[in-house]
Each structure stands twice: as structure tokens, then as C-alpha cells.
Amino acid sequence: MTELTNHQLRLIARPTGAPSAEHFEATEEPARVPEDGELLLETVYASIDPAMRVWMNEDPGYVPPIPLGAVMRGGGIARVLQSRDEAFEVGDVVAARPGWQSHPTLPASEATKLDLGLGTIEDWAGPIGTTGLTAYFGIREVGAIQPGETVLVSGAAGAVGQMVGQIAKIEGCTVVGIAGGPEKCARLTEDLGFDAAIDYKAVDHLEAAIAGACPNGVDVFFDNVGGETLDAALANLRLKGRAVICGRISQTAAEELYGVKNLGVLIGKRARVEGFIVSDYADEFPEARRWISQRLREGELKQALHVVDGLERAPEALAMLFEGKNTGKLVVRVTDA
Ligand SMILES: NC(=O)c1ccc[n+]([C@@H]2O[C@H](COP(=O)([O-])OP(=O)(O)OC[C@H]3O[C@@H](n4cnc5c(N)ncnc54)[C@H](OP(=O)(O)O)[C@@H]3O)[C@@H](O)[C@H]2O)c1
Question: Does residue 122 line the site of ligand 1, with CB under 6 A?
């Protein structure tokens, strides 16, 4: 081959607040012919995740920063166009880290062939991909939910949050979601089976709103938001309650961090706060994917992708996460599935 052009978006400036188009530059170069052990890929979906904003920092903490001038880092689903590795064939669909580029050439060792018997490409981009696994392990293993318990989820209309609430319902819990806006809240209760939803943008006092929705207190708080939301939830924990710290998007792009005040509650309530990273559970991913896949087929679990079309719109899509403009798992469609 190949006359293919690899379209890219490179990080050219580090944001102080929310990310936007000015932090990226579009470039293109001929797609590179793969060498031994490499694959030429065509990106189908680029995953848009809150952590990408953290990777744009000079010191992201748990991973190296993205160098200025480099292609924006990111996960995604891609199709194999050329293979120089015997484990992959042309047409295979893989999960990889294509970043923001249309036709990357990557080491085959960094790609995982997807079993399309387990779910569609869209399922792999969403519920049986990383966000579904994050929800599954976060609420079941870290949250250790038990039937009959009350579960409170923040960021509940987002990719991880929607799955957390539905999994907790399957496990016999009462589930209350916190989300921004009446449409998102209606989707939680009317489409996804949540018992109640709190529109945090419409309440004056979140702590009191949680107390109203969870009159016996919260056994497990699954937190995607952090900051004041975490404080309000901690104040409502029951005896032996658990707060699962999955993310803190309210702080991810904040220029001034919020200091959590209610940690003292943990003493009298004998409660615990525990963070986790989904990759801690990598050995158990196959079993979790089978569990999720079966419930998707049976209609017990739902997750619609929120699709933004066109690689050039990836910066706009990333900003949407911080403006609450996505409902469910956000992806950019780079080429047709
Ligand atoms: N620990 C892990 O291994 C792991 C793995 C994957 C993801 N995560 C974390 O999980 C969280 C959710 O990720 P996701 O991919 O599912 O994103 P998401 O929830 O689909 O999207 C982000 C949502 O956060 C809400 N939000 C944004 N700014 C906010 C603010 N200031 N206050 C309150 N809510 C705000 C918005 O919803 P509203 O309209 O409701 O405001 C927005 O739609 C993130 O914090 C992410 O970093 C952790």
C-alpha cells in the first residue's frame, strides 16, 4: 500500500482550566507502512475520558505527561488494515491506544483483538470496555454492595455512573443518582431503573437533598465527582458506610481545589473511603466482561454511546465532559464502524 493519510491532533499547550481547541493542532502525514511486529490501524472510535485532561498536565502524577508536540494520547477501537504480526489479520477489530490519529502504526503487542461474539464494537467502546469494567469492580469489589443496601452515585448519568447504578440495581440495592439537569435525571429513573435522582444543579443544599432521597442514610457512595459532592455524601454515610473514590471530575480542571471537610464523619460511623484503579483487576476482566455481556443481551443493562462525529471535533468532545454535555459514554467516531 499505501497512499493513506494519517490525520492527527497534537497537544501544543497545557491548559490551566478546562481543555479546548486552542490546546491542539491538526497535522497530517502519510500513514507509515508497518514493520515486523507492527500493525497499521484505522481508528473507528476514539474514547474520550476525563483522565485525558489530567495527562495534559506537566505532572499528571501516576502516568508520564504527554509531551508538547506529541499526538494526543487516548484509548480507542480500531480496525487492522495491515498486519506484520501473525496473531492479527486484516479486518480484525482491536482495542488499542491509537490516540487522536486516524491511521496509526503501532506495536502489535499494544493491541488486543476483540471478541465480537461478546458484544458489538459499540459495546466494546462502552459497557464491556473500560468504563463498564470500572463500574463493575468499583461497586462490587471496592463498594462490596449487599442486597438491600442504599447506593448513592455521583456523575450518575455519565459513562461509569450509569453502569454503577444499573449493576447495583441488579444486585438488589436501592439506588439514588446525582446528575446535572432534569433530562439526565429523568433518564436515570425512567430508562435505567434508578429509584431516585437528584439534580444537583437545581438544589440549594445537596447534603439535605441526599438526606431526603436516602432517609436511612447511604451504605455505599460511588463518587465520580469529588469536592463538595463528596462532602455532602460523607455527611449522609451510615454506620460502616463505604465511599468508593473512582474519580473527581469537579477537581480535574479546577484552578483552585476544594478542601473536603467531612472526613470526621468516618470516625463515628466506622466508615471507610477507598480509591481504586480499574487496571488493578485486569486478571478478572474476562469474567467481568462475560457477566456484563450476558446482562446486555438480556436487556438488564443498557448503555447508549454518545457519539461525536469527526476526529477534528475531539477537542470539543473532551471539553463536553467538563460542561456536562455528554450523556453516557462519550466517543468520537473517526471512521465508520
Ligand atoms: N478509577 C478508575 O480506574 C477510573 C476509570 C475510568 C474513569 N474514572 C473516573 O470516573 C469518572 C467518570 O468518568 P466517565 O468517563 O464516566 O465520565 P462521564 O461521567 O461520562 O462524564 C463526566 C460527567 O461529569 C459531570 N461533571 C463534570 N463537571 C462536573 C462538576 N464540576 N461537578 C459535578 N459533575 C460534573 C458531568 O455530568 P453532569 O451533567 O451530571 O454534571 C459530565 O457529564 C471520572 O472522574 C473518571 O476520571 C476512573
Answer: no
